[in-house]
Design goal:
This is Haloacid dehalogenase. GO terms for molecular function: hydrolase activity, acting on acid halide bonds, in C-halide compounds; phosphatase activity. Keywords: Hydrolase. InterPro entries: 2-HAD, HAD-like_sf, HAD-SF_hydro_IA, HAD_sf, PGP-like_dom2, S-2-haloacid_dehalogenase. The structure is a single chain. By secondary structure, the protein is α/β, with parallel strands linked by helices. It is 44% helix and 12% strand. The chain has 11 helices and 8 strands. The protein has helices spanning 18-32, 41-60, 69-81, 87-92, 95-102, 115-122, 135-145, 165-175, 189-196, 227-230, 253-263, and strands spanning 6-9, 126-131, 151-154, 182-186, 201-205, 222-224, 243-245, 248-250. The longest helix is centred in the first third of the chain and has 20 residues, at 41-60.
């Protein structure tokens, strides 16, 4: 196989812990607006995120909706606040508060294993994020979470959300690497399948509660570990259902360093 030149990382869930970060933000806004302390902010954050995943998938397939994540998050917040369960929040949050909490998605903390590992990988590879988040969001996120990207690539720049072909094809073009020289690293199978369709190599990061994000009630796609990592006896798989092979599955970014040495 050709030498690996570039690593392309998903953002939400893969490099940053959106769930605990948003719950913390929501709790702060709840106190600020005198909402009941027993408000289920974890459920609220999950419903907001699920709406995002459902809509980006639909838009990637040609459905209606904005390609700017800030605009999409804001629309989804309005939809969420129309539900009877969250009426008490809707009554407490005026337009300015709703705008402010929407931008909390810009300020998510990195998973503990991410920053130092990225700095180490940066010494050897091009490292970039490729996310459905809009450009300003990804820049703010990188600054807040201290993510040391060589470049920030937003699907918004390429006119389509992942897993449409354009983000992967354009990333390879802008990085001037062959697909086999590029590894997509993500905690979502749909993203890895999209990258693999264009010849990119793939590593699945097993983050808690990230898959399946949308297809409730369906079996999760199986992830088969590629031959390189299997050679070390790490026979892992995730979920059940349709089979889909990746080059490796890792439980942390620390494992990623070792996996890449084996893959090259």
């Amino acid at each position: 196989m050709p030498e690996i030149k570039a690593l392309v990382f998903d953002a939400f869930g893969t490099t940053v812990d959106w769930r605990s970060s948003m719950v913390q933000h929501l709790e702060a806004f709840g106190k600020k607006t005198s909402l009941p302390p027993d408000t289920d902010w974890t459920k609220f954050a999950q419903e907001w995120r699920t709406g995002y995943m459902v809509n980006t998938k639909s838009i990637s397939q040609g459905g209606p909706g904005p390609l700017n994540t800030d605009k999409l998050h804001r629309q989804l917040l309005e939809d969420l606040l129309m539900k009877p369960e969250w009426k008490h929040i809707a009554d407490a949050w005026d337009e300015s508060i709703r705008d402010e909490i929407t931008f909390a998605w810009h300020y998510l903390k990195a998973w503990p294993d991410v920053v130092q590992t990225l700095r180490k990988l940066k010494e050897k590879y091009i490292i970039t994020t490729l996310s459905n988040g809009n450009m300003r969001l990804l820049i703010d996120m990188a600054k807040h979470a201290d993510l040391p990207w060589d470049a920030v690539l937003s699907a918004e720049m390429f006119g389509a959300f992942k897993p449409a072909p354009q983000p992967y094809q354009s990333t390879l073009q802008h990085l001037s690497v062959a697909p086999s020289q590029c590894v997509m690293v993500a905690a979502h199978l749909f993203d890895l399948k999209g990258a693999a369709a264009h010849g990119m190599r793939t590593v699945y990061v097993n983050r808690p509660d990230e898959d399946p994000p949308v297809d409730t009630g369906k079996e999760r796609v199986v992830v088969k570990v590629g031959a390189e990592w299997n050679a070390k006896g790490a026979n892992k798989s995730v979920g059940g259902g349709e089979e889909f092979a990746v080059d490796a599955i890792v439980d942390s970014f620390e494992d990623l360093v070792e996996v890449l040495e084996i893959m090259k």
